[in-house]
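Lab notes, practical 5.
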Amino acid sequence: MSPFFILSGGNQPSSNPVHLAKGRRSRDYVMFVLPIVFGAVSDLTGIWTSCFMVLFALVGVALAWMHIAIRQMEQKASGIDARSLPQFPEMAGLHDETRHAAAQPSKVLAEWKPEDPDFWETTGERIARRNLYISIPALLLAFAVWMVWSVVVAKLPQVGFAYTTDQLFWLAALPGLSGATFRIFYSFMVPIFGGRLWTTLSTASLLIPAFGIGYAVQNPQTPYIIFLVLALLCGFGGGNFASSMSNISFFFPKARKGNAMALNAGLGNLGVSVMQFAVPLIITAGVFGALGGAAQQTAEGGQLWLQNAGFVWVPFIIASSLLAWFGMNDIADAKASFAEQAVIFQRKHNWLMCWLYTGTFGSFIGFSAGLPLLAKQQFPQVDVLQFVFLGPLVGALSRAGTGWVSDKWGGARVTFWVFVLMMLGVFGVMYFIQAASWWGFLSMFIFMFFMTGVGNASTFQMIPNIMRQEVPRLMPELTPDAALKQAEKESAAIVGFTSAIAAYGAFFIPKSFGSAIAATGSPMAALWGFFIFYASCAALTWFIYTRRGGLLHDIERGRTPAPAVQPAPLKGAAA
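Output from the prediction step:
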């Protein structure tokens, strides 16, 4: 079968003269259009290797189209359950029912009861862990692509891009704006489409900004508007967090949910630090050869392959997408329409947790986006890119490693002290900026990153506990089992939605630094604003949740019996 036939969208060859004539016309059309498309793309980007990206996309779409068409044809002809078929028709002969068990539609879990200790120990834990282990690298790549502009903008002036400080801060901030907006929609996608399909598609979508950045930075004449669009497209990575956390929340029982979500989020957040550490190293060598493009000359006479900041993620994104498709599962009971999930907009605690999570995760992702450029602006004599990755690294590891603290002491109590200590951290940053102390400045930001990690885990630990108290009160007509399922669905939706709102910190924090510096020549005004915000978060946590009479006061101190929907604890719940 010729490439021209595939690109023309044909499903199978035919000897019919009419079909042959149509095939020739399609071939001629492709031969006419492709050179025009290649020329237009080359003229637009100024980079001849951009033609490879167009051809890669065309062949990928054609192969996917052909594969889907063949599978649909075989399924209609056989009349059997599509889920029982192998992933590729060519693999059908590899399965022998006399030697293997009959094929089962195992990708969709028709029955999922993680709160049942017997089910969890015999079946559930193995499946849940597999989905978690596949989700973590996909989320890590999402964070890496989302925040890649925080490093790229610091290098653009060195390779000939004459942008102002405010323009650079805009490029650092826009991925946060689009990522937060995407999260609002992504938070509802898993119950609609299923975690397996959505994780695959959302991870594969990262290829668009990864390729785009790789080509755009090679030409100093690339219009600023192209960079703005690419910065917005990096928000695909930001949106992935909401759907990933929502998906993983369905797999684990309450006793292990906090630790599982802390691992998924914390090691996923590690993508920021991995990116900020790896990109400054990989842009110093032409690791992709001729396909990666030529080096850019720096003002100091050196060479940089800034395109590697985008290209380096491509093979990992492809591998992670395939792993998600072939290795993850959907949970049938987790299906829900948008209308069913929209009930969370009537829950006041949804909006209160949005405020608190903005203080923790919003700070983590906002500082990650803004710190490299802020540090470079405040301490131009220091090669800040050698050190700033430490902040996100500490924040991600603290989130992954401190979930047990909230499980032991209570998420609300931990959250309150997190905000008190972050207020002290802001004072420390202001002091060391005035003292012109780089190491003091860096240590205070690392301290605040650590506290954001602890707070990220503690706020997410609060959400299931809150909804397990609220659902029986708000919906007394539900049976205990129905109330438990409703609480789980609402908790998953709230987790996704709060992460969406909090992600706007990735826009507002770097933009606040840029606006404060443009207006006053100093970031102090922005820092005072952060201090006031953290004070409001501490006051809200104390008044609503932790004071005597607060919603979680007695529960976190073990003074009340478990709610009606609370199942018996599992063995090893502290793991």
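Observations recorded by the TA: The mean pLDDT is 79. The CA atoms of residues 348 and 354 lie 10 Å apart.
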